Hints:
This protein is an alpha+beta fold. The protein is built from three helices and four strands; from the N terminus they run βαβαββα.
Amino acid sequence: xxxxxxxxxxxxxxxxxxxxxxTVLEQLGGEAEIEKVTAIEEIAAYQLFATPAxxxxxxxxxxxxxxxxxxxxxxxxxxxxxxxxx
Length: 86
């Protein structure tokens, strides 16, 4: 996976989501840039109504909640497979 973005203004939930994404990525042995997006203008570009949000390879995977590590792992794995096939 090339890029994972955690969208949010820096609240505790946003920090927890970022930490979960980093942990899952480490467990999978993957390498990716994890970007924390805090600028309201950048978050608004995704037309989200709630944060925190998780974006993998430009695709919004969740918004307004902290997904489970299993969900995050599944999304990262799927994105990695798509990158290999591309």
